[in-house]
Amino acid sequence: MEFVVKDAGKKTEPELLSRTLQALDHCADLVHQKFPLHAIDLIYFAHLTGKEQLRKDVLEPFGAVDNHEAGIKEKLTQSQYVQAATSEQVTQGILGGQVAIYYGGQAFLYDSYSPDARSITSSDTETVISGPQDSFTESLSTNLSLIRRRLQDARLKSLSFKLGSKSGSTMSLLYLEGEADPDDVQLMCEKLRGIHTDTVLDTNTLTQYLDPRSFTVFPQFLTTVRPDVAVSKLAKGKLVGLLDGSQVAFSAPATFYEFFSSTDDYYMSWLVSSAIRLLRYIALFITLGFTAFYVTVVTYHYEMIPPSLLNNLMESRNKVPFTPLMEAIIMEFTIELLREAGARLPTKVGTTIGTVGGIVIGQAAVQAGITSNILIISVSISAIASFVIPSYSMSSAIRLFRFGIIILAGLLGNFGFVIGLALFVIQLSGKNAFGGAGAYMSPGNWLDMIVRAPVQWIDKARKHAKSPLR
């Protein structure tokens, strides 16, 4: 039986149906529906297809009793039915949520991909006091709609990629034409095409494949679950990546200062936002060096301690059997254990463990003579300061780097403390994920970096000169 259909020039592999069924053998969730009257077979995964769309466009038209051969041929010539030439093409289509229609020894694919998705809710990880409350979901189409709803600009371009030889995850790269650097777009496309792996299931995993600096602790991509953040990055000339099956989007190229900006900064008065942003940078230095400074002063430089405080410190450390370095490492390690336990346990239990555990362990450690009161205060302030940093990935990197500075301070005193801070700056001054030297610390727009100037000033500066991305 031969008739003209879309892509009819392609040669069709014989026994497509049997080969497809053999490839998808032992799949209990596979639906094989037959219409003997018209010699039509349908194969699909019901949980990947839209039920109403499947009923309206496939089941009812091809299952109608009064259907005749000419009517079926005419139906299959429509653009939504694409002829498949090989069983591999049919199998991949079915796995991707398409319906395979077998008729007259030929196979056609109809795209009805519409899996069940979580509804749009507020974010638990990036909360805001004021502003939009919606967040991305695990559905790529939903996430794209959330962005295009906010950015109705014809210059917004979307490039599609398939990642993972087994997972076949769909990824969309978004950018604003005329704002994004074409070299950055080309480089990102090359990086995405160069990913050769079996599965890519989450955006955070994807960014690791895109980052050539495997031994840096600092994040090279800004991740977010908020559509308004993604849109603001697109407007500034950044690239945004969305992966189907992941709630998280990434933005690139990222700079160090972006990780200290919060969505709330743009929804409040510029004076309040600037004060809070300055507080975050102060918290950076506290969490990075407060405990290390305690170790170096107590170990090598008693002369830097005021006499009134020195007496209390000596009395507090009188029964402590450990060196200040060992004492600090033990307490910092304990704090990290409590932090991880609180994050992995259910919310209510985790909050209780974090609060009660910190109080009980700290008080018991002081009474047992394991540590001093002043170190408990120092470690607690450092831990609280780390929570002020909005980005969890940046906060984790700084906490890890803090251990290195503490060890250097305990071994070399103030000299080691300064070396640790210098290494911190050197790490930040290196190349970013796009290969630009020093781009990670690129100042960008000075009016929206350390402080947040009035939005009118920021817009005016953006119109007169684009912020460098490299």
From TrEMBL:
Keywords: Membrane, Transmembrane, Transmembrane helix. The keyword Membrane applies. This is Spore germination protein. It comes from Paenibacillus lignilyticus. Belongs to the GerABKA family. It comes from the Bacteria. InterPro entries: Spore_Ger (IPR004995), UPF0353/GerABKA_families (IPR050768). The keyword Transmembrane helix applies. PANTHER family: LEUCINE ZIPPER PROTEIN 4 (PTHR22550:SF5), SPORE GERMINATION PROTEIN (PTHR22550). The chain crosses the membrane at residues 278-300, 374-393, 405-426.
